Every structure is written in C-alpha cells, then in structure tokens.
Amino acid sequence: MGIQNDDYLGRCSLDISQVVRFGRLDTWQTLQQAKHGKVELRLSWHRLSSDVSELSRAISETLLIKTGELSSAVLSVYIDSCKKLPNARTQSRPDPYLTVTVGRKTETSAVQMRTDDPVYEIGYSFLVQNPEIDNLEIKVLDSKTGGQLGQLTYGISSLLKQKDLSMITQPLMLQRSGPESKIIMSLQLKILKEAIKEEDYEEEPAAETPREPSPAPPPATPPSPPVTVDDLDTHKPVPPLTDPVTVLPEPVLRNIEDALLDSSSQKSVPLEHIEKEVDTPQEYQPPTGRDSPKLVHRTSSLTTSAGEAGLGRILLSLRYSMQNQTLFVVVHKIMHIPLKDPANVPDPYVKLYLLPGRSKDSKRKTVVVKDSCMPEYDEQFEWVIPLAELHSRQVEVTVATHKGFLGGSPVIGQVVVHLNQYDFREAKTMWFDLMPETSPRD
User: Fold this and answer.
1) pLDDT by residue (tens digit) across 192-223?
2) Rounded to two decimals, what is the model's pTM?
3) Where is the stretch described as Disordered (predicted)?
C-alpha cells in the first residue's frame, strides 16, 4: 500500500523555526489542496547531549507516548575505508559497495570499481530508538556478483561506555570475510534532550523557601466611551481617510503569535491587547496604478469605525519565512459588518486567493461564523512562494456570507494586499478597511 493506492486528502507544512523558538508546539493546521479539514500536530525540539545520564529519561519519554517509532538518540557514522577485502571471483578484484543499517533505515554507498582496498570517506546519520539494544549493521557487497564480501554487527550500547559516547577512527575486523579484512570508521552517539525554553520553565521552590506574594494587579483602565453622532457635532477633529498603517512592535507580535499557537486554550487575540501596545503609526504608501485598490488602515483606537466604505474592517497578520520560502497570513477577526436587516444577520467567512492567476490551488477559506457582525477566526494560512516572486504577488481577501447581503450578493467586502509594500524581515499585523468587490467571484 502507498499513497498511489489511497485517496489524497490534503497536505500541510509548518515553519520549523516556530518549533525551535517555543521548544514544544501543539497546533492545528488547515490542510492544503483539500476542500476542508485540519490536522493536529504535536512537535518538540530536541538538542543533542553527550551526557549518558540523559538516556533513561529520553527512553522513558518515548515509552510514555506508547509508540515504538520515536527515537531517543542520534548515531553519526563516518566510514573511511575497507582493507584487504577478499576477491568475489578467482583472479578478479571486487567492485565493493556498502549498505549501512540502523533499525528500518538503510543507506547505500557508491560502488568502488576493481579494488580490495576501497576508500569511501562518507558519513551517515541515523535516529536510534533505544541505544541499549539497537545495533549498527554494515554489509560489504560486490556489485558484479551480488555476493557478500564481509559484514559487521556493532552494538550501539558499546558507545555508552566510551568518553563523549564516541569512537574515533578505529579499524574493526569484518565478519564472514578474509582473515585480515577490516573496516575503518568513526562513530558518535548523541542523546536527544528536549529543549525546554527557560522562560517557559518554572522550578518549584524548596519547602523552606516561602513564595513571595504576587503584587496586586493594577486597577483596570475604564474603557473609552464609544463615538456617537453627538460627539461628532462638538467640533472634535475627525481623522482623515488615508490613515497610516500601524506596525506592532516585536514583543507584541510575539505575544500575538504565542496566543495563536496555543491551541490548547483556543483563545483568540483580544483587540484590546493590540490597541494598548501599539507604537506610533508609520506612514503607509498605497500601491500605485489605476487598478490597485486603496488599502485604508485605521488606527486601532477607532474601535467603532466601519471603515471608509462602511463595510467593516478586517485584522490580518503577515509573515514570510525566508528559510521555507513560505508566506503566512493569519485572519484574526472582522469588525462592524453593517447590519441592514436585524432579521438577516450575516454568516461571514473569509476567502483568500493569490494573485495574479487566482488559481483554485491557491484558494484558502476560513470556517463560517453564524449570525455575527463581529466574527473572530484566528486561522493561519500559508503559500509556498519563492522569494524572487514575493513582491510581484498579491493576496485577495474576500469577506462573504452564506446568506444574501446587500442586493442579494454574498460578498460583503474585499481587500487586495500588495506584498511589495512590506518589509518581511518582521511580521506585520494590520487593520484593513473592506471595500466593494472588484474581483470576479468563483
């Protein structure tokens, strides 16, 4: 059985740097190339240790998960050469090659032609489930006859007694081979130790050391009163429509990302948290050209605004992974979708396409939130885009409803995000005003 015999149900990819950063990650990922579906991933990042005392803990962690497929160590194998191999046939030198096996993984070397002293100078790495019982198996084979020229079975547990869990450039006698046949190689074993972030790890204080009482929380700041029509008539200044983009500082972005990745709590990122930590807005230059839609961003303090077109606003986060050549877009929430008929509250959802092209493979879609003018999603989507193409692409974001909206159309509003307007060396979290639909519906 294989994927060619099964129905393809979708795929997903994840930026490994997130796992490295948090040490441990439990997240739900939306399947790509699928109509719907999510997969839960639980990942942990491990560092390599030469401390043999860490092995029992590593093995215990794999046993707790009740699967024999997880590993507790990594074995590095470097094979320099073989010496005085027997001939495969009379008066004919062999064409030797190696197979190197640990567990279910086997590596095969290149063939060395017509020699009984082959030089390989090749290295491999293997995940080891249990170094106390697993073996390294090496076979020397002749490519012309398929016959075996020698073999070696090495108990990985022998490395546990060596300094730094290493064996450096040692000749070992081959079994079922010539009387002087040897293989020269080096081995190094490393124990996998979970890399727990120091800021996430709190050690219990000793019994004799009392815990200091936590300071009382500061009094809550009373919320700002909503903007009313009367307020607008008292000669208070009204902000211009072309408000600047607000770029969140890095600590705030990390807090937002932490909240999004914490799938166990399933909490959304509160808008109030974003509003209180916004720095001085930076100027945003909208894309030029007659066909480029005007992306209007309003400062987060104007929580009662429905945007320039009165169709609401959408909060998005943008991030690009240089390592994986992947664009990540998080759809946080929509605010102030207009309600024309109280008996017909919209069921909003968000569709995203990559432009130009607008292919079905680039389509992404959030869940539908029933009966809401202030829906929250906190869903992350991703596209693999080469860095050279990034600034020539756009993301079309369309908010629609399962029910008919104004004039019977399912589309509430739309915005096209031009990626050439952003420096993706850091993440961006921004509000965009929804505008009337300009792109064709699918």
Assistant:
1) 987 765 444 333 333 334 444 444 445 544 44
2) 0.46
3) 199-246, 276-301
> Could you tell me if 308 and 405 lie in one domain?
yes
Residue 234 lies in a domain: no
* Strand partners for 77: 124, 187
Residue 183: which H helix or E strand, with range? strand 182-194
Handedness of CA 111, 114, 115, 119 (dihedral sign): negative
Q: Which residues on adjacent β-strands are paired with residue 185?
A: 79, 170
Contact 183, 79 (CB under 8 A): yes
Q: Which helix (H) or strand (E) holds 18?
A: helix 16-22
The residue type found at 134 is D
Helix extents (H) in 243-286: 250-261, 271-276
Contact 397, 389 (CB under 8 A): no
Residue 331 domain-assigned (yes or no) = yes
- One domain, residues 35 and 103: no
Query: What are the distances in angstroms from CA 38 to CA 1, 327, 360, 380?
Result: 24, 19, 19, 11
Distance CA 17, CA 1 (A): 33
| Structural domains in the chain (count) | 3
pLDDT tens readout for residues 122-134? 999 999 988 999 9
Question: H or E stretch including 190?
Answer: strand 182-194
Beta-strand (E) ranges in 51-134?
73-83, 96-102, 105-108, 119-128
Tell me if 45 sits within 8 A of 19, measured CB to CB. Answer: yes
Looking at the fold, whether 254 and 386 belong to one and the same domain comes out as: yes
Same domain, 84 and 124: yes
Domain assignment of residue 329, given as a range: 240-433
Q: Are residues 246 and 274 in the same domain?
A: yes
Does a structural domain hold residue 420?
Answer: yes
**Cα gap 385→383, rounded to integer Å:** 6
Amino acid at 321: S
